[in-house]
Amino acid sequence: xxxxxxxxxxxxxxxxxxxxxxxxxxxxxxxxxxxxxxxxxxxxxxxxxxxxxxxxxxxxxxxxxxxxxxxxxxxxxxxxxxxxxxxxxxxxxxxxxxxxxxxxxxxxxxxxxxxxxxxxxxxxxxxxxxxxxxxxxxxxxxxxxxxxxxxxxxxxxxxxxxxxxxxxxxxxxxxxxxxxxxxxxxxxx
Length: 189
Description:
The chain has a two-stranded antiparallel sheet with strand order 1-2. The protein is mostly helical. It has nine helices and two strands, in the order αββαααααααα. Helix content is 60%, strand content 3%. A hairpin with a 4-residue loop joins strand 1 (22-24) and strand 2 (29-31). The termini are far apart. Helix 2 (35-45) crosses helix 5 and helix 5 crosses helix 6 (94-114).
């Protein structure tokens, strides 16, 4: 009975104020940095290099806020399964968990609004994505989407323009020397 009570108390404490969204549940530090969130994203969309998060990277880079809200809702469902102290299966239904999802989504939007100057939610979602790609065994998109490694100096463009001008000048001079005739043309009498 003592274990059942501990399980119940832990589940209840994790749901109280949604402390499970924090990295440190007791001190409420590291909001939206819980390992549970990262693990949920890894398992759902980034299990390996052929998973949806990798194949459809344009939809997952950064991890969408709605996906974060969905995983937080799934975590809450898992916690609910332990509310009686023993694990019981609970169906993850929109009728039950739709309002909970909306609450998490709303909280994420408020967090984003209040921390906008620091772009914290964007940084969190980008970090979730980059960590998930690493988990899947795929390199980060940053080098792939960042500055191109193939950089051509402006001087090369200037040289090309000058080369073109010289070729054009040579063509004009060759045309003048032949009396305006182009190879294959003959003067008619």
